[in-house]
Amino acid sequence: MKRMLVSDYDGTFYVNDSQIQENIDAVNKFRNNKNLFVIATGNNYKHFLNVVQEKKIKYDYLILDQGSVISNKNDDIIYSVCLKQEIAQKIYYELKKIDKKNTLKVCGVNQEECYIDSDKITKILIKFDDIKSAQRTAEMLIKKYKNNINAYVMIFTSSYRVEIISGETDKEKAIKKIATLEGIKRNNIYTIGNGYNDISMINSFNGYCLNTSVDKLLKECNKHVDSVNELIYQLIKI
User: Fold this and answer.
1) Fewest CB atoms less than 10 Å from the CB: which of 4, 14, 141, 218?
2) Which CATH number fits domain 4-80+170-237: 3.30.1380.20, 2.130.10.10, 3.40.50.300, 3.40.50.1000?
């Protein structure tokens, strides 16, 4: 029976340098049993390939830019969903008016940063100093552009970020794409995360969250663990 584990990266798979090695060791054991391991992250393709190579993380698929890009273990991009060009430009110039610290950034399918006139834009992001401003901006964009976009508030150590992607995708939909390719049934898919952008994938599959997750996720997810490796060793025993 082949199973698939999908883990968020920042704040979940990577919490600190000592724990990530424990997670990597556990993943290697999980994959040795012919199971699949997938990282689902908001990170961009070009940037994140450097991260996994540096950390020597073995994986079968990467879900990148919040679900906008999927690459396989050979690092070939096998799927991508871009923002509609007209909508991307409207959002960009709208956010540029409130971007006081020049943090606005546009990511492409295989580019960490690209021009706003590109037709390959997978994500737009902007940083804020406080969570309320980030939440207000995300809510405003979702209300204005409705099903055309998904907007997530991301929490980092010293800042808050709003990340905007196409409404046609998210981590959950990207997981379904991989499951179809691999012929894996829903009840054999396990997910783990810690943030707002992980809620849909955790609610849609066998979902777990870290005890350090955001409050909303802790309330919606009833399976809590301290680490990814704790979950993996539970799965290996099943």
Assistant:
1) 218
2) 3.40.50.1000
